[in-house]
Amino acid sequence: MNTALLQRELVTLLRQRRMVLMQCALAIGFALLVIIRWPTEPRISLSGSRAQEVFRLLSYGLLAALLLLLPVFPATSIVRERNSGTLALLLNTPLGPIRIFFGKLLAVLGVAGLILALSLPAAAACFAMSGASWKHSQVYLMLALTALQYASLGLLISTYATSADGAVRWTYGFVLLSSVLVLGPYQFLHGLGGNLAEGANWLRCASPFAALMSLLGAGDVAGGGMVDRTNVAARFVIISFALSLVYSLWAISRLNHSIFDLSRDAGRISDEQNLWVRLLRRFVFVVDPQRRSRPIGPLVNPVMVKEFRCRRFGRLHWLLRLVAVCALLSLGLTYAAVTGTVNWGVETIGGIMVLMQVALLVLFTPALAAGLISTERESGGWPLLQMTPMSPLRIVWGKLLSVILTLLLVLCATLPGYLVMIYIDPGMRFQVQRVVTCLLATAGFAMMLSAAIGSLFRRTAAATAAAYAALLLVCGAPLLIWLGRDAPFGHDTVERALVINPVAAALSVIRLPGFRDYDLIPGNWWFLGISSAVCLVVLLVQTHRISRPQ
Amino acid sequence: MSKENRVVVIEQLTKRYGTFTALDGLSLTIEAGQILGMIGPNGAGKTTCIKILVGLARPTGGTAQIGGADCVRDSRRIKHLVGYMPDRFGSYDNMRVHEYLDFFGAAFGISRPVRRQRIEEVMETTGTTYMRDKFVETLSHGMQQRVGIARTLLHNPQVLILDEPANGLDPQARIEMRDLLIRLARGGKTLIVTSHILPELSRICDQVAILTHGKLRALGTVDQISRMVSQERTIEVQFSNREQLARGAEIARSHLDPASEVVQVPAEGVVRFRTARPEAQLADLLAGLIQGGVKVSQFRELQTDLEEAFMSFANLGSGKSPPGAPAISLSATEKVVMQGSKR
User: Fold this and answer.
1) Minimal C-alpha gap between B179 and chain A (Å)
2) Looking at residue B188, what is its pLDDT?
3) Scanning every residue of chain A, which has its alpha carbon at the shortest distance from the alpha carbon of B151?
4) One domain for residues A292 and A188
């Protein structure tokens, strides 16, 4: 192992200001956790139940910290080096791809180790108060394995990405997919038996949340109270280790000349091709991406059009595909509801649709909205926009409009599914109306939160990572408390936590089992509305600030 | 310089960041259709000056006007009067060249039919028509610079302000850029160009402003500035018969100061010397050479080297005056009057 490379990577990471902030925030958070839950009375329970609760929260907090904070480092590691030209220098040295990869991987694991080490004093306090035993050291091993898996995943994605913010988007997307969304199928298929249910069972074991809950003895995540004898932790170790190995070997195989060998069509245009080719392309694409685009119309905001055009998937043919997939999925699920209402029920199908839509919103919105301002600042486009007669307000509105239209398209695509649901069960009309309102509020909130947080950064990668972290925190953290809804958290605590969560609000409205007992509306709408307004103010103030002459 | 013809008027322009003075009492004027080359080392205040002119920075003191519009108070008018190309291109992903130009045309509120025509015109002017369907980010640096200039021309501004347009260009692209800038000036545009590539500037600029440490050290044509650095000129005499080289050098020495160094270059068949003698005495020297039976094929003053002048002023600004370089006061440089055009 080349220690020089490891040192350089680690020192570069540790020198960053955000790293100092992150360490301070974590240290304060863990200290507060112990202070808040520490016994204040002279008599304490010898069973250590309170310390156990602290240790559980500590473990969930650590896992959330790893999932939210860690992926950005490996995701940007290789792509940034490639774009700055230093990767070519590294590959020209005798180091070789294996040592380069492991130098980077160990540096990221060093950061993960630092995060875990910060929690050791709090864990030791729990140990002293009988809240944790040596058996619980497995939690740390599991967390280390999680860090290994996501670090190698981030590095692999980084070898494919062409920009740092793109790498961050894809990495967080995969993290969300492999830690939260894999729990979805098990929620609906467990107990049914058969290969499909067994597949869903294995799938949920890939989630570190499932493994952690299993280790902490907090019940079976998404199990709905049914006893399951699956050794989730053991399966997680197998899956996580295998995935880490695959990701690592794959990434190492990418670390050669081929990583620079990216040819790109400089701009073929179909207007100059013969009629048959043009007709064929029109038939295949509906909207031909290689057709020469028309000038921007007089009634549209030019910035909005620009945003659509310069997004990789912002072109109309991609949007049409996205809408078509969403429409087909929602109709497919509704068809399942029609043919299998005995097993699942309309509420369950509605729950799946809501989950899918929220997942889409959480995945897409930061990617669309976080870089609205930071991309311009990073690419040098902001001074050019400033030199046009457009006001900062019009620029921001054009940018927001491009996100609003995309999100509306995605949401509208699933409306046919809801309409069929109302047709099946007219009594659900009111619920569906409220769900759609919830989804609109969620979309607005996710957009404003991402845009406001993103506007505070100069670099798109940092903006995207921060927006994902904030949104996942709002959407994910209350669900962690919901997972412990019987113990250690009571009904009121869970309800208070869920009231800020747009996912839970939508699921409670559709009366999905597990959420129907919580009354989250209109509290959630108030929270989303006020937060969105605050974010809008932040965005406008920040835009005004960077638009002022120096 | 007639007042009506002045397009850019800068008076006592000052910009301070805390205790640091980025620009210190800069005053200059530029006439319509001229090219001003702004040179200076990094941190000299060139970009600060440009940013104030285009409204991206506010001056601490002084005024700047373009086409009669104040750069601070009339910032909206300035946007229509000025085409600004920063040192960074400002590329957008997945956009073709014509889409890129179309966006900026729409941002300037140019109507669709006019915009379509303007895009064709500016692409024709900048020689970018053939790349209209190419993706902007796949273009070479030289091509991007051309597209950048096309963008600045879209709204037909009176003044073009180009920050380091020749930076990073290969020799061919640099020559093409130079020709393009000359064409634009001939078309009536006023240009302010910053560059580190001094030979390029010396070939195209009507006047050159040398800035160091935020102060204007010299302003005038390249020749005028060179004279400020040194009163001596370099004269080169070429002989048709190389065997007469020694004889020619001897006659030259007899007409010059004893301290003057006369250099013979047998390989080129020339004699070079530096002198502060006036034109009339140089005419006597030429007459002496011809009367002495030496066949002179050329008798010329060598083109002044802007790099040399720049280095003298750069050293002056840093307090390291080169030996022999006279101290030049700012007031003296401000009195320089623009004469003639090189084009």
Assistant:
1) 25
2) 85
3) A384
4) no
Residue A315's domain spans which residues? 304-547
Q: Rg (Cα) of chain A, in Å, rounded?
A: 25
For the record, the structure tokens of A415 come out as 């409306």
Chain B residues touching residue A380 (CB < 8 angstroms):
86, 88-91
- Partners of residue A315 in chain B, C-beta under 8 Å: 94
> Is there a single domain that holds both residue A202 and residue A339?
no
Strand partners, B26: B13
Is residue A467 domain-shared with residue A505, that is, in the same domain?
yes
Task: Indicate the residue of B90, B93, B134 with minimum beta-carbon distance to A266.
Answer: B134
Query: What SS3 state is found at B297?
Result: strand
| B300 CB burial (10 A radius; 0-12, 13-18, 19+) | exposed
Give residue A262's pLDDT: 67
Spatial distance between the Cα atoms of A255 and A88, rounded to a whole number of angstroms: 10
Q: Among residues of chain A, what percentage have pLDDT more than 90? A: 16
pLDDT of B331 above 60: no
Query: Cα angle at A537 between A533 and A540, to 5 degrees?
Result: 135
Q: Minimal CA–CA distance to A324: which of A433, A418, A416, A424?
A: A416
B58 in contact with chain A, both atoms CB, cutoff 8 A:
yes
Question: Which pTM value belongs to this model?
Answer: 0.74
Which tens digits make up the pLDDT trace of B121-159? 889 888 888 888 888 888 888 888 889 989 998 988 989
Judgement on whether residues A217 and A283 belong to the same structural domain of the protein: no
Quick check: A297 contacting B, CB < 8 Å?
Answer: yes
Cβ contacts (< 8 Å) between A550 and chain B: which residues?
51, 56-58
Tell me the per-residue pLDDT of A219-258, one tens digit each, with 9 for 90 and over.
Answer: 655 555 555 667 888 889 999 999 999 999 999 999 887 7
In this prediction, what percent of chain B has a pLDDT beyond 90? 11
C-alpha pair distances (Å), A106 with each of A10, A430, B275? 8, 53, 69
Number of domains, chain A:
3
Give pLDDT < 70 ranges for chain A.
1-3, 36-50, 130-132, 187-192, 218-229, 262-267, 312-314, 333, 336-347, 483-484, 486-488
Task: Give the model's confidence band at B334: pLDDT under 50 very low, under 70 low, under 90 confident, else very high.
Answer: very low
User: Mind telling me how many Å the CA of A306 is from chain B's nearest CA?
Assistant: 6
Q: What's residue B93's pLDDT?
A: 78
The answer to whether residue A342 neighbours chain B at the CB level (below 8 Å) is no
Contact B133 A390 (CB under 8 A): no
Pair (A364, A480) in one structural domain: yes
Q: From chain B, pick out residues whose CB is under 8 angstroms from the CB of A387.
A: 54-56, 79, 82, 84
Which residues of A fall within a CB distance of 8 Å from B79?
Answer: 387-389
B112 contacts chain A (CB < 8 A): yes
A380–B contact, CB cutoff 8 A:
yes
**CB of B328 within 8 Å of any CB in chain A?**
no
DSSP tag of A293:
P
Look at A390 and B107 and tell me if their CB atoms are within 8 Å.
yes
Mean pLDDT of chain B: 81
Counting one residue from chain A and one from chain B, the pairs whose CB atoms sit within 8 A come to 112
The burial class, CB within 10 Å (0-12 / 13-18 / 19+), for A323 is middle
**Which segment, A488-492, B274-278, B333-337, is predicted with the most confidence on average?**
B274-278
A302 and chain B: CB distance < 8 Å anywhere?
Answer: yes
Measure A237 CA to nearest chain B CA, in Å: 41
Q: Residue A452's pLDDT is what?
A: 94
For residues A274 and A254, membership in a common domain is answered with no
Which residue of A296, A381, A549 is in closest CB contact with B55? A549
Q: Are A362 and A472 in contact (CB under 8 A)?
A: yes
Same domain, A82 and A204: yes
Do A324 and A386 share a structural domain?
yes
d(CA A334, CA A346): 8
